[in-house]
Amino acid sequence: MSTTTTAPTAWRAGSGSTLDQETLERIDKWWRAANYLSVGQIYLLDNPLLREPLTREHVKPRLLGHWGTTTGLNFLYAHLNRVIKERLQDTIYVIGPGHGGPGLVASAYLDGTYTKYYPDMTEDDEGVRRLFRQFSFPGGIPSHVAPETPGSIHEGGELGYALSHAYGAAFDNPDLLVATIIGDGEAETGPLATSWHSNKFVNPVNDGVVLPILHLNGYKIANPTVLARIDDDELTDLMQGYGHKPHVFVAGFDDESHISIHGRFATMLDEVLDEIAEIKRRAHDGDESRPRWPMIVFRTPKGWTGPDYIDGKKTTGSWRAHQVPLANARDTPEHLEVLRSWLESYRAHELFDDEGRIDPDIRALAPEGHLRMSDNPHANGGLLLKDLRLPDFREYAVDVPVPGGSISEAPRILGNWLTDVIRRNPDNFRIFGPDETASNRLQSVFEVTDKQWNAQFEGPEVDEHLARAGRVLEMLSEHQCQGWLEGYLLTGRHGLFNCYEAFIHIIDSMFNQHAKWLKVTNDIPWRRPIASLNYLLSSHVWRQDHNGFSHQDPGFVDHVINKKAEVVRVYFPPDANTLLSTYDHCLRSRQYVNVVVSGKQPAPNFLTMDQAIAHCTRGLGIWEWAGTEVEGEKPDVVLAAAGDVPTLEVLAAADILRREIPDLQVRVINVVDLMRLQDAREHPHGLSDKEFDGLFTADRPVIFAYHGYPWLIHRLTYRRNGHQHLHVRGYKEEGTTTTPFDMVMLNDLDRFHLVIDVIDRVDRLGAAYAGLRQRMQDARLEAREYTRTHGDDIPEVRDWVWPDAQDQADANMVDATISTGGDNE
Amino acid sequence: MSTTTTAPTAWRAGSGSTLDQETLERIDKWWRAANYLSVGQIYLLDNPLLREPLTREHVKPRLLGHWGTTTGLNFLYAHLNRVIKERLQDTIYVIGPGHGGPGLVASAYLDGTYTKYYPDMTEDDEGVRRLFRQFSFPGGIPSHVAPETPGSIHEGGELGYALSHAYGAAFDNPDLLVATIIGDGEAETGPLATSWHSNKFVNPVNDGVVLPILHLNGYKIANPTVLARIDDDELTDLMQGYGHKPHVFVAGFDDESHISIHGRFATMLDEVLDEIAEIKRRAHDGDESRPRWPMIVFRTPKGWTGPDYIDGKKTTGSWRAHQVPLANARDTPEHLEVLRSWLESYRAHELFDDEGRIDPDIRALAPEGHLRMSDNPHANGGLLLKDLRLPDFREYAVDVPVPGGSISEAPRILGNWLTDVIRRNPDNFRIFGPDETASNRLQSVFEVTDKQWNAQFEGPEVDEHLARAGRVLEMLSEHQCQGWLEGYLLTGRHGLFNCYEAFIHIIDSMFNQHAKWLKVTNDIPWRRPIASLNYLLSSHVWRQDHNGFSHQDPGFVDHVINKKAEVVRVYFPPDANTLLSTYDHCLRSRQYVNVVVSGKQPAPNFLTMDQAIAHCTRGLGIWEWAGTEVEGEKPDVVLAAAGDVPTLEVLAAADILRREIPDLQVRVINVVDLMRLQDAREHPHGLSDKEFDGLFTADRPVIFAYHGYPWLIHRLTYRRNGHQHLHVRGYKEEGTTTTPFDMVMLNDLDRFHLVIDVIDRVDRLGAAYAGLRQRMQDARLEAREYTRTHGDDIPEVRDWVWPDAQDQADANMVDATISTGGDNE
């Protein structure tokens, strides 16, 4: 799996290490250079290498950035360089304290990568000036580790996902080391706190190794951190309780020389890597016990090497070092003086020559080519991305002799196809979910794979489909599922996340960060496209029979479409064949977030595979077989649906209408690709106004049955000609303990109410069909009453099928794949 | 602080315990009765006490619920009853595995509370029948612990917040024990994983005690749990690492008699409560060391007391017991038989008399009155809620001699008022935030209080405003802040959560659950209204100078308004005085979620306090001083704004227009209360169409500058008459590394673009003002170019003030409260 230019011998032990004085001094020079370049980025507009005395004009007018964590990051980067080079160890980094952005830019500049990707950042005085100037400057680069930073797969934005991303990167990369720095602030977040347990899911043979380094610098913006303020033995217990072997390193709190510190750390790092190599060796030799992987506690002062006190207040070693310690350096001469001596303390003249070139001895610390962490192709996953070998989804089609003529649990059909996706792609496709892959009806994948698990086993009586290696990862943490999948995708692989619809909101903010990452990388030429992030939300708002109101929320779609149209897609396949077609499209796509909502309960199939492909290709369309239009005439009313339950109710309403008002011309439209409703100017999938009018008409009433909150449809269509004729029925936060049909009735999305809507909105019907209207009201009351007496839906509703299917033999109507066992929701 | 009917002697040691055979048998009878009532709720439609042979007609047609966790919950409830009664210990419960809802209903029925609140659930055969029937049945109660469950403050919906809620309940309730059951599934979530660290924030003297009970039943829906599959010493290390003293209890895996098990657990529980009493005593005596609070690991089989095997598959002690083990009991005679013998195993005839009354000896286990966990007033917080003693916010007004005539950081002014709110309400108001209370400019509260912290201290050089007791709680976990605040509010207190706007999405799903809780409790007569949940989002999308694109997302408001109008409110106060007025309103309100967005950067004040009060009372209004309308005529164009930055840009645009097109009649509208835009039929704050037209006109162009995503304004107004004339400018996900004005330009929200919008949309201007239009374009380019050269905004924009303020002396223009120190974002 290795992709480095120099083929590494993975997981060498460190016998070749040479921790002589020269090496330690080289490490120190790198560290000083990286620190100098970091301070320079934060403060300097000009005079980058202090060729002339520092004046206020050399200082940026707006000082923006984060200093406190940066020197620690630089220290670790320097030391990792040494061991990577010595061991030829394929390594990427994940920087939890990503606001220390200048450090990673500095390191990439020192090893030559930065200039490779940004040729304008030359290796001379002028290049250093540009490097400094661009940092957190209008039109420049962000202050955080970002997509713009070579070597990064982890934005320094929201905190909490460093370890999840790291493990995602490690899966199926058996020779890769993921050095992961966790800030002690970040360590307080929930997602990070549980992500330590990832070590029970990683396989020591087939997966790579995550080396967590807890950067205990003690402070956040304005407070101490929790983990820095508990007893040492408590912290050790915690790390052991998380399943790690901790190595504790403390430095910077006394007068110990930097060379001595480097010596101690380098020795420890060799030990740690030797331990890892030994664990890997044992695992290859068949040892199946769960390793206690090493981790490092790295306790140093915050803002290490910065000014100790500013205006008499302790700065280094306190929260005051978090951001920009000398915020008024431009306007306060004393502060400018502190800045000058701070910059000079790194002795840049020893590190750069007279033209501003980096001392070759510094660069010699770094490995070469793709072994440089800044230039490791795993961190630009699109470089490594291979197309999935997808089986032909048409071959998995369910038979649909007539519309409604068979019944399936759609995700179960999808599962059949995914089973073969896994079979054909044994090492670059994974399914993630919080304990729900079977519940979401994808269980046939367990014919060819297992759930990967490296904690204890209890035996086959209770451990079904659980194995040390497998393509499915389940942990009851949506944050972990999302974070693992993101890490997996960002390093050039494929996958999907299946989740309850309501609880996907748990990762709303993670979605935000990933969507922003995709949007930004679209504009970075050297970043290569990665596989899309695919959701399957199959326990949805309309069928929370076991759970009720607390499990009902269809708003993730609303959240998603706030992001740039170029990176988000939303699909509501109405049946099994459309789901297959949709998902085939999703797994082929790049650089998107695809949200697919498809219920898991038995439901009728309406489209043959050919029809499904045509329908999905258009994204929406008229279902002529369901309507009662007369060729060449305009319909009286349009019934539209997006979502499986709404589609069923719309068809049932259309059925009532054709029986009760035979001369009413009804058009039935089904929407798979929600983005089609938008204006072509707003979304690449959007319909032109002309196309929209051709479908929905500009002047006929449109009754739109929608899976989610109704106003989303208004939001997508408010500029359309016929918008004032559009009436949307959707979820109104009116759930309670109900049966399925009672649930749609509560939200006025039911067939009877849709018929009432038609009567109320088609002018000529109003008075003439008062009787039908009353019957519909009565039918609702009767159905409601039935549920309260019998605890089930009224059979004529529950067992309703589209009339064409009524003629079929019962035997044909039940898809053989439907479970008769317990409903494991 | 105690509110029990029998005044408890808090934190007694357990010398009075009587673990004789009679007591243990009483515990066992309670347990059997609760288990029987739980199974009955899940399965039985009729024949509740098996007076006749069980037939399929007695079984519910749809079996919905969760069995696996229930007997463990019942076991713990029974044992807690004993110690509460013996020690008169004020106690509430928090049930993390809340899907075990039938257990809590059963327990409340056994102690008499259920019949108290639901008189229809009588204590006889018919009452038991109704109790069973209603469970997870149309029109009945949810299958989870829910607002409908007496004694609950914690919905059994989304998992992860049991400990956060528990600690929220414990703060400022020094005599309260919060018995908190954590499922081992839930324990895998991120929020739960970090919430263990709450013990570093609770004060042993002034706060109550949380007793975490980790219910290690080993399985989730379809998988083992992580914590049940690590070594015992690893789990012990983890709990010790979290700062607890673990007590491990294992039962149910062998033939030990239930009486023996009860004896062991009761003895251990006495030890645990004695330890707690001892810790409390030491703390009262002045011991300031952080206690290692006890916690219990409670390892039992999942589905304990249920059928061991069903159809030859291991059920009890496996994931198969999670939901409804005999899902086809109605239609499979063998399963019906298993159900019969399962039900009979509890020997209900020994527990209920011939009329269905509970054996008085069982009830005697429970404490009395408000000591019953089901009837503890802390769990119906509105009962205990006291109005805050609010200082008159008018007295904190900033001076605004003319519009724009002073400058403030609005949250800093709010902080002055909050300082006195804290002073006057020393034990029922708290501020929560993830390390940002000072950054968000509320730092003056530290004049009267501190950040509560019970981990290590390092001394005054670095620990500013950190103390063992204080009204501010800061941990770098939005989940914890939200969970603590929810627990605090639900137990009848007040508070606010200050957070970065972008990262409040982290708790989107928690907001959902809380909003649903509020909506449901509005319809439960015995639930009393609680204080609103107040957000202050003051590091907002438009000023992420230090952080950039990854920190920009104004979509929380979109998320919030998906919930029922009756429980959500959103405010955009444009300056300091309006913020004061708004927040006074929020802290007085009940049963809402109030979202207040207000920037923290220095910005002009526009309204005097009297004007601010009038403006906030209306929620929106015409700012006549800013417009150029002629009395009695209709304006040519309406410029509207919601949000502080948009308000500034609209005013600057109005300034340009009055200078450049003096005869143009411009109306300036400012919106504080976003819900006013909605239809009166949609939201209680909504304007009627007539009012709306009176403000916005039905036919004039409206240029609306909005803080967030523009389509939200369309969504709120799409039914309004003038909607087709509405043009919204807002955030478009176009941020990058910029200066503040560059940021608004990137999103076309800037003054120059607003003027262009006016020219383009007021018909008569188009051609005549092509020159002005060009100048505006040029001004944008010039401003953009300036930022890229100087790294700062162009001074004529940055220093612009409303013309009325121009005449003032400079000295009057700067509010003395503005910091000159570092910008601690």
UniProtKB/TrEMBL annotation, chains A, B:
Enzyme class: lyase
SUPFAM superfamilies: Thiamin diphosphate-binding fold (THDP-binding) (SSF52518)
Pfam families the UniProt entry points to: XFP, XFP_C, XFP_N
Enzyme Commission designation: 4.1.2.-
Keyword annotations from UniProtKB, A to Z: Coiled coil, Lyase, Thiamine pyrophosphate
Cofactor requirement: thiamine diphosphate
Gene Ontology terms, MF aspect: aldehyde-lyase activity; magnesium ion binding
GO BP annotations, alphabetical order: carbohydrate metabolic process
Coiled coil regions in record: 762-789
Domain Xylulose 5-phosphate/Fructose 6-phosphate phosphoketolase C-terminal: 600-802
Occurrences of domain Xylulose 5-phosphate/Fructose 6-phosphate phosphoketolase N-terminal (ranges): 19-383
Xref: HAMAP family: Phosphoketolase
Family: Belongs to the XFP family.
Protein name: Probable phosphoketolase
Record lineage: Bacteria, Bacillati, Actinomycetota, Actinomycetes, Micrococcales
